[in-house]
């Protein structure tokens, strides 16, 4: 999955570079308006498709069943936080407090 995201990222960069070159050619007079519009439409369509594929890859990273497990574990941990806190040593207690209150505490 990571390789596919990297490939799509490179492809998006190439498409944006192609768009920039087309603009430069249009400004220099080496490319006429209709050709520029054609390149622009083609690149924008490919960019939209690639971005949609990246979005789909991100959404598929966590299936509903995986998310359900993660949420259940988190809720269980939070509901038992007082028990966990009371049974831990001083370092773990500091870590728990530090995760709740982000500002630096001095003990």
Features:
single chain, 107 residues, mainly alpha, 2 domains, 0% strand, elongated
What's the layout of helices and strands?
Elements: H1 2-28, H2 33-61, H3 64-79, H4 81-87, H5 90-100
Helix pairs in contact: 1-2
The percent of residues in helical segments reads over 70%
Number of helices: 5
Structural class: mainly alpha
Radius of gyration: 26 Å
Low-confidence stretches: none
What shape does the CA trace take? elongated
Oligomer: single chain
Order of helices and strands: HHHHH
- The end-to-end span amounts to 44 Å
How many strands appear in the DSSP assignment?
A: 0
Tell me the count of domains: 2
Give the mean pLDDT.
85
Strand residue content: under 5%
Give a short account of the largest sheet.
none
What's this model, at a glance?
With 107 residues, this protein is mainly α. It has five helices and no strands.
Task: Give a structural overview.
This protein has helices spanning 2-28, 33-61, 64-79, 81-87, 90-100. By secondary structure, it is mainly α. The chain folds into two domains: 1-61; 63-107, no CATH class. Helix 1 (2-28) runs antiparallel to helix 2.
């Amino acid at each position: 999955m990571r390789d596919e995201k990297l490939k799509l990222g490179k492809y998006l960069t190439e498409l944006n570079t192609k768009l920039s070159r087309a603009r430069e050619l249009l400004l220099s007079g080496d490319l006429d308006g209709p050709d520029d519009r054609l390149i622009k439409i083609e690149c924008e369509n490919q960019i939209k498709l690639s971005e949609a594929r990246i979005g789909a890859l991100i959404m598929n990273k966590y299936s509903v069943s995986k998310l359900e497990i993660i949420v259940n574990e988190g809720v269980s941990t939070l509901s038992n936080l007082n028990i966990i806190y009371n049974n831990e040593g001083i370092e773990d207690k500091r870590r728990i407090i530090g995760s709740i209150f982000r500002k630096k505490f001095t003990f």
